[in-house]
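Obj.: predict assembly geometry.
Materials: sequence records (below).
Method: joint structure prediction, all chains together.
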Amino acid sequence: MNLVINNLKKNFEKKEVLKDITFTFEKGKIYGLLGRNGAGKTTLFNALANEFEVDGGEVFLIDEQGNKETLSSENIGYVISTPVVPEFLTGREFLRFFIEINQHKIKNLKTIDEYFDFLNIEVEDRDRIMKDYSHGMKNKMQMLVNIIANPEVLLLDEPLTSFDVVVADEMKKMLRKIKKDHILIFSTHILELATDLCDEIVILHNGVLESVQNEDLNSTEFKEKIIDILKDENHD
Amino acid sequence: MIKIFIEAFKINSTYKTNSFLYKIRKLWIFRKLIPNDVYRLTDVKIILNIIIAIFSYLFEFVKKAIYFMFFFMLPISMMSSSNDSVSAFIWIFLFLNLFIGSFGKQIIMSPTLEKYYSVILMHMDAKKYAITDYIHHLLVTLISFLPSLFLFGYWNQVPLWTLTFLLLSLIGSRMIGDAMFIMIYDKWKYAIANRSWYVLTIFGLGLIGAYSLSYFHVSFPPLFLLPLSIMIILIAIPSFLYLLHYQKYSFLYKRLITRENVIFDTDKIIRESQLETVKMDEHSTISNEMIEKKKGFEYFNAIFFERHKRILTKSVKQMTGVIFLIIIGSIIVLFFAPELKDNVHRFLMTSLPYFVFIMYALNRGQVICKAMFFNCDHSMLTYQFYRTSKNMLENFKVRLKMLIRLNLLPAFVLAIGLDLLLWMTGGVGNPFVYFSMFFSIIFMSIFFSVHHLVLYYLLQPYDINMDRKSSIYDIVNAITYFICWSCIEIKLDSFYFSLGTIALTTIYVVVALYLAYLEAPKRFKLK
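Observations (raw structure tokens):
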């Protein structure tokens, strides 16, 4: 299964944020989407998640047999950078509601506690109202419901920045564990995070998406190469 | 002080002009006409600043004139003969303006965007700003009250010297009120004017005082005004000096003028209640078996209503209780004063148009939709599954049922009560009149429940930062208010009016639901 983007365009009034995005993301890999602040990473994610109408281009999923499928809420999960959860519910109530609504598309349904265990959510936190959850806990809940729904494509907008080092490490392990069944695209502006977690780095720069080929993502040369691209004087 | 005033004026008029341009650009007819970089055109903005400032000052005069029309002229013409209109005018002014106006709301401590921008963001000197802004406020009050007070007072034959004393007392009482609020806060760190129980008590007492004394034709002793005014002025002088010499405005503003208080000022009471409710339920999970048995959106919304009992169900129950008491009270009055029966009967037979406005005012739809957005949809709309057409319509259906059911409680009591009063005051030969009156109240309640929810789903007026962004939503609400108010003017027998109401409501509900079904999945989203 691949996610194919062809000539995707999005303008905000006169500003061309996504100029001509063409790219293919493959299943089983974690992609690190890098870009400077304001480069359009969230716009790209919003475009993929059908948050608004785009000004041109197409996005679809294509399987091994060449069958095309359009992207919809059924096959895409989107974890936004500011975690928002319905604060009037407890974690357990939220999961119960989510599972009841999405039962038809959840494969290998587990119990609510098994899901909590999967993301190491403590027993005493499960029946607390989410209003009192920390930023990181809310982020975990948001991540959890997206994982439960088991979409083909999972978009993660700056997901690890709110976690402490221990939880961030847990989340990285979890993402590596689930990557074989998903197309994971992970946006960040922190280079080290991208090189540490991702299998491939793609750069969004001047409204265009480009892959940076290198065998060793953690080498100094590779990091310098990325910074050079991002420092390009055309950046606005 | 003049410098501070000019600086604050510049900041505030710039923000007003920018907000005006932003809002007007949201309307599609202006979007094409006004370029995106209009904010850079300094000359245009200076002219707009001046125009907006002039209009906002002129609007103060208009507001006062409307206020006097509705709160003085209208009730006085309904209650008093020309002999006691002077007393009625003075009573109403004393209770509404001196009592409620000065002790029901604060000026210096009120969280406003102007204070937030000038003192918190721009770091202007808090004390100088507070005093300058306060003097400006007093001057605007004095000048804007002057023409309306003298015009409408003169119209009611209130002597000029009395009006002068009333005006001076008004300014004096404002100083006393604000000094009192600051003293209380200084001593107990308690912003009493932000508490709904206090505000409601002051408003309740003030309204009862203003209109009951006028209604019972209690004459105002003319010699009483002079000592009252002197006393107010004597207390106002040290109060004003206290405000001038108070040193902790900076501390006060840091505590009270927070972004949250300012941006959501209008929704503060809702949020406070919501937070308290959530706090109350924190220690226990929902143990209600009825809720546990529900599934999906029924379960989700049942918890929402349960955790927001205080602002949703409790207030409806209180409202129902008040209606019940009014009806019981009316029955008792009719029992002891049977001579009123004819008047009440006549009123009931022609009063249904008034109930359009009353049912509009009683309906909790708008508040509930607001609570739904702030405490639920604001977060849930970020989830893809929540926004699918199927789920959105399922959620809409569940909510509509809950909203209608909730609003039907007071409507049902009111409808039964009206029929009961009609029967007690002599009744009518045609039993259809009872049915039509009952069902028109019930239909009006359903109408407003549907109206508010459909409007919310079609025009979702808030953006992701929970600011109100839709001008169309405000315009439609204003039109609804105006239409409901205008219905009072309809002179039609209740029977025919109710038939019309039932027919129109049915058509409206069908059309609105069809529109919601077609359009809500496309339109109900975060902006």
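Conclusions so far: The beta strands of chain A are 2-12, 15-26, 30-34, 56-62, 68-70, 76-79, 153-157, 183-188, 200-205, 208-212.
To do: check interface contacts against the pulldown list.
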